Amino acid sequence: MNTKHITKRIIATLLSIIIFILAIGIANNILCTKTEAGITQMRALYDQPKNSIDVVMLGSSHVHCGINTAKLFSDYGIAGYDLSSAEQPLWVSYHYLKEICKTQKPKIVVLDFFTAAAFQEDYKFHYYFLSDSLYGMRFSLNKLQLMNACFDNKEELWNKYFPSFFGYHDRYNNLEDGDFDYAFGKDLSYYKGFVPHFHNEVMPDPVIDTDECKPPMEKCITYLDKIIEFTKKNDIELYVTMVPYELNVEQQEGLVQEETQRYNWLEKYLLEKNAAGDGNVYFDYVFRHLEDIGLDYTGGSDISDGSSHLNYNGANKYTDYLGRTLKSLYNAELLPDHRGDSNYDSYLRHAEYIEQLVEENLKEQ
């Protein structure tokens, strides 16, 4: 066999491999599950201009329903991003934080503590929303570590979610036109995680009715400490809070939520952390001063659904409060005003995108 023939075979083999890899990539883009409950939030992160995010919001769906990143930018010049997912536990928040720091240099982390307060060892839906936390992240050592943290040594979960393609390869019959928009990738730099809701629901006003303290499960404490350590090491301010919702709603029959007791515990725990030298941590116990936000629970104008997410109205009120609070806590070096800076044009496109969603909702009413 002459050298020319061998060269042709090598080239043909390499081309076949390249075509196969491209085909798998295109198939993955089309077939992958696309939800705005965490997957799109993570996928869009990779399209953000490098080092363009100053504030990252981590936590449950309360975050991407309740923090309007377009308003944060338009009214305060804050370049923020909702990197949240459905019922996001702290171990997911920790690995999400590590992921965003690969391409961004956030100066402030806003950490929603809801999931850690609400769901303990006996919560039967522990693994129900894993796909929302996993499918958006690119494969890496960090993702393997994330899966290891999520799966609790359960082989059946590894079999279900690794590789991710195995989890959604059977979506052929459920594909929609929008899925094919992702075939060769889709620029999501305009997307900042916020998902406005437009329903209205009446809820009772939240009440802190006890001073009792109860810790969350040990795994939550471990990952809270990891987040504190990571932010301190990387000169990041950590603002721990909870996006307002209806407290202590029974989400599993017969299981008392006891969220208030765990927020009480968190308040004391973080004070101890401050005293021990973790000065980058701030705790905002919003349920102690809801009047500063002005949410309307009983009138129903600010709450979206039975899971007590904020609707667009409520999100604007909370975002306004959050913007004012962050600006008062942190100086202009940490939180520069990026309005008028052409390097942040993706936020202008984001504001237009949210405005379009609002207009479409008004037409439907």
Can you describe this structure?
The protein has helices at 3-31, 39-45, 61-66, 69-76, 90-100, 114-118, 130-134, 141-151, 155-161, 165-168, 218-233, 259-275, 312-329, 345-364; strands at 55-59, 80-84, 108-112, 237-241, 281-283. The chain contains 14 helices and five strands. It has one domain (36-137, 188-364): SGNH hydrolase (Rossmann fold, 3-Layer(aba) Sandwich). The protein is an alpha/beta fold and 365 residues long. The chain has a five-stranded parallel sheet with strand order 2-1-3-4-5, with helices on both faces. Mean pLDDT is 88; it is low at 23-27 and 168-172.
Model regions low in confidence, pLDDT < 50 over at least 5 residues: 23-27, 168-172
CATH architectural category: 3-Layer(aba) Sandwich
Distance between the termini: 74 Å
Number of strands: 5
* CATH class category: Alpha Beta
The CATH homologous superfamily: SGNH hydrolase
Number of domains: 1
